[in-house]
Every structure is written in structure tokens, then in C-alpha cells.
Amino acid sequence: MISGQYIHENIWVKHMYCFACTIGCGKQVEIKEGPYAGVRGEGPKYETISGFGSNLLIDDINAVVKMNDLCNRLGLDTITTSGVIAFATEALERGLLTLEDTEGINLAWGDPEPVIALIPLIAQRKGLGDLLSQGSRAVAQTMGPEAQSFVMHVKGQEPPYHDPRAFVDMALSYATANRGACHLESGTYYAGYGYKWPGFHAEDRDRFEGGETSAQLVIDFQDYLGTYNPLGLCKFIIKSQLGPAEIAELVNAATGWHWDGDDLMAVGRRLFNLKRSINVALGITRADDTLPERWLTLARPSGSAAGVLPDLEPMLQAYYKIRGWDSEGRP
């Protein structure tokens, strides 16, 4: 089964810390019995468990730990790898791939063994792995129009497992993120969870609102979190309700500068616009600022977000206007 309680009681070894961190959000795990006994390493986190677990209908956490360990040792991103394998599984189910194409690897929902066999082939670019190593968009382009109805990517990058139908701000964030679908370029879903940042975004949020309000929220968080990478900051600290003013104080303490929160945000804005300008020079257009067809046309049938679809176009228009970009998304 997949649960935090099972992990803690059966395979958890200790907390794992980045340098000088007092939190230790990483977990070292070790499988002690069964077919994957002896696997030891940093344990799977949310995205990995969702990608190789729920997304593939695999409910064996030990198998997910094995997949995570393989990806870590082979230098593969678990979001992208699980996403492209899920796409291949559905393509095989629909008849767009055959067992001849997969060289006998029978990908099936809920079966971990073909996934475990396929991960090294992706890293080594052998057999089916050679095709899948190119990513879901490239694979779909070899299959014709039907594949476009279920392939999951934005600008060629497989999305993480934060459904934008549950947080419509994230729909806009995924569509406009400079490196494709990326939850780390804004993290506005934290606002949807109810987090507040005094002096920055302290108001209550309706996670289904959309429109200009969502556009401003996404822009603010893209600019704010855009400063975290060059500063070497962990993006989880925004859950401690640190806003731009507090981060500017940290910068000042380290450099002797005299920034305030507005100075920090101005740097983030320049960084984001520079990245967008590079993308535009490389051929990115407004047409690329979109989402997979499923997210725009298929509503969730149950849960608190049942029936919700992100209305992307009004948010995108407001986003371009606030950014000061032209109607084609050019800075």
C-alpha cells in the first residue's frame, strides 16, 4: 500500500537534510524484505509517489521506491520519466503502440515490473527506451493526431502532479512557465491551500477564481520565486510565510546592500522577462502558452474540484497585459 504510515513503520531509516537545513524533508528508506529487498537510498517524495504510484495505478510502495532508486542512480527526473511511461502505457492500450514496438515490454496499469525494466532502457537509449527518452511530445508526434488528445506536456515538458483543475492559478502558471509545465516557477497552489504572506499576499483566495486576479497572483509569485534560484534558496521556505521583504533582509545581511521587497521583485521580474525573451528568440509563441487538451476539456468527475475547468484564455490575456507584453506574448 501507499501511505506515510506504512513508509514510517516499514522502510523509513532517517531524515535527510540539505546542507545547514534544520528541517530535513528528505527521508532515507531501506526495503528489508520481498523482491526489492536491499534497496536503500533517499526515499520517494510526493511527485515520485504520485507519478510512479497513483498515475500508473501501482499501489506497491516498495516498487515505487525501487523505481525512484533507479532514476536517482541513472540521473533521470522522476516526473518526466513517470509521465512518459504513463503516456506509453495508454498508447499501448489504445493500439498506437504495439508489443512489437515495445519489444515485448507489456506496459499495463498497476504492473510495476515492466516499468522497472523500462527505466534503465530509457537511460541507456535502448529499444523502446530510445523512443521514450525523447519525451512525450516527441513520441506523440510519431503517432498521429489521436495521440494529441491525451499526451501530457507543456512546451515539451511533462507536468508535475498538481492538477490545475483543482487550482486554476496553476493552469496559467504551467502555461506561461519558461521551462514548460513547472510547479516550481510560481507555487501558487500554496495560496489555494490557504497559506498567506503578510505584506505580500495576505488575502483569502478562491482557488477557482481565474481572471485578472489569478494573473496577478501568478506574476507576483513567478517574479518572487524567480529570485530563489540565483540566491540558492529552498522554495519550501515560502510555507514559513516569508515574503519578498524578508528575503531582501537576508540578501542585505549577506551582501551589505540596502534592498527592500520591491527591489527583490524588480530583479525577479527582469529575470523572468529575460528568460521569456530567450524563449521567443528560440521560436516560442503564444500558441505554446497552453495546456494539454485533457486539462482544458475533461473535468474531474468527483471531489472538491468536480466539474471545474480552467478558463485559460481570459487569464492569459490579463497576464500579457499586466506583464507589459504584446498580444503575442512578446516582452
Highest CATH level, the class of the largest domain: Mainly Alpha
What's the count of strands?
3
The CATH architecture classification of the largest domain is: Orthogonal Bundle
Tell me the number of structural domains. Answer: 2
Strand order of the largest sheet: 1-2-3
How would you characterize the largest beta sheet? Answer: 3 strands, antiparallel
Mean pLDDT over the full residue set? 96
- The CATH homology group name of the largest domain: Aldehyde Ferredoxin Oxidoreductase Protein, subunit A, domain 3
Uncertain regions spanning at least 5 consecutive residues: none
DSSP helix fraction: 40-55%
Short synopsis of the structure:
The chain is mainly alpha-helical and 331 residues long.
Describe the structure.
There is one protein chain. The chain is mainly α. It has two domains: 4-148, Aldehyde Ferredoxin Oxidoreductase Protein, subunit A, domain 2, CATH 1.10.569.10; 168-323, Aldehyde Ferredoxin Oxidoreductase Protein, subunit A, domain 3 (Orthogonal Bundle), CATH 1.10.599.10. The protein is 47% helix and 4% strand. It is built from 16 helices and three strands. A three-stranded antiparallel sheet has the order 1-2-3. α11 (211-225) packs across α16.
